[in-house]
Design goal:
This protein is mainly beta. It has no helices and 28 strands. It has one domain: Methylamine Dehydrogenase, Chain H. It holds the Pfam family Lactonase.
Length: 353
């Protein structure tokens, strides 16, 4: 029997901070038997829905609106494949590019890239975000004056141990950290710096190993950093940094993710236009690059692991590509399927048909 997976596609629109050609959140069906991708359809109109996440129960999908006056929008999911806007809220920051649905189910936490702030939004009984109950601002800069003139919060995660949140700041080369108590009216506690990466590294996204180790993609220095996070002190120690690709120059890592068994780490490399595969040691302390696989597209901004495949959003070629993952080696092979669609920048696997 054919098994299809629904993919929600975050996209750039003509009015978003980075101009694109989409009209909102897009919908694509992925056949996991044949690796075929269906024709893309508009799931919901929106401005700059560049990053999308689901509620735990899959009844809602949330998107940032990557605009100068940032917003976050909730979409109700109907019949597993239809989106209807349920409401939105200002973030109080500019150009939000990443968000976290907190596992306690009470808050969205948004990384506002433009001004470096982090906004905390309570969810109302219908699951719609309210205006920020807190905004965490920051100061600082890095040596790359073209990209690091100030703080740029690029992503946010639940830290190992579950009691703190980590903010990856491209502008200041830091991992910012704060305690988070979801039952409190003001859930975010005082902010501190958990780790300082190499000047000019430009950390973007991270992946978290079950051992508590972190793997951070340095967008500006094209390296992957390995850190050990201590939940007791909420501090992280850098253990290693390795090249993100074998390509020589002009490469800007983006998404980074672990395989389900944590044996492999995958990194999207924009410029080299590859997915790099790393071997991960059993204790999570070491990584070793095994291969660089072309994505079959240009500027792979994001990808998702879907039933033995990597589905890649290639921003500049305006394509989704499918790379089959070898079950034994964990290394993806050449693209076996390609779909043209307007400016995809995020892939969110959803329902199974």
């Amino acid at each position: 029997m054919t098994r299809r997976r629904l993919l929600w596609i975050g996209s750039y629109t003509p009015d978003s901070g980075i101009a694109g050609h989409a009209a909102g959140v897009q919908r694509v069906w992925f056949d996991t038997d044949t690796a075929a991708l269906s024709k893309a359809e508009l799931a919901a109109p929106a401005s700059g829905p560049s990053f999308v996440v689901p509620a735990t129960d899959q009844t809602m999908v949330y998107a940032v609106n990557e605009l100068a006056a940032g917003r976050v929008t909730a979409f109700a999911v109907h019949d597993t494949q239809q989106l209807t806007e349920a409401g939105s809220a200002i973030t109080g920051g500019s150009y939000p590019c990443h968000l976290l649905y907190h596992p306690a189910g009470r808050h969205l936490i948004v990384a506002n890239y433009g001004d470096g702030s982090v906004s905390v939004h309570a969810l109302d009984p219908a699951g719609v975000p309210t205006a920020p109950v807190q905004r965490l601002t920051h100061t600082g800069a890095g040596p790359r004056t073209d990209r690091q003139e100030g703080p740029h919060a690029h992503s946010v995660y639940v830290a190992p141990g579950g009691t703190h949140l980590l903010v990856v700041d491209l502008g200041t080369d830091e991992l910012r950290c704060f305690p988070f108590a979801p039952e409190a009216d003001q859930p975010a506690g005082p902010q501190h710096i958990a780790a300082r990466l190499e000047p000019g590294s430009g950390p973007r996204h991270l992946a978290i190993h079950s051992s508590g180790h972190l793997y951070v993609a340095g967008e500006l220095d094209s390296r992957v950093y390995v850190l050990r996070f201590d939940p007791a002190t909420a501090q992280a120690e850098i253990l290693d940094a390795v090249p993100a690709t074998g390509a020589a120059d002009d490469n800007y890592p983006a998404e980074i993710a672990l395989s389900a068994d944590e044996r492999r780490l995958y990194v999207a490399n924009r410029g080299a236009d590859t997915i790099a595969t790393f071997e991960v040691s059993a204790d999570g302390t070491r990584i070793r690059r095994l291969a660089d696989t072309p994505t079959g597209g240009a500027w792979p901004r994001h990808f998702a692991l879907v039933d033995g495949y990597l589905v890649v959003a290639n921003q500049n070629s305006e394509t989704l590509t499918v790379l089959p993952i070898d079950a034994e080696s964990g290394i993806p092979g050449p693209a076996c399927s390609t779909l043209d669609l307007p400016t995809p920048v995020c892939v969110l696997p959803a329902a199974v048909e």
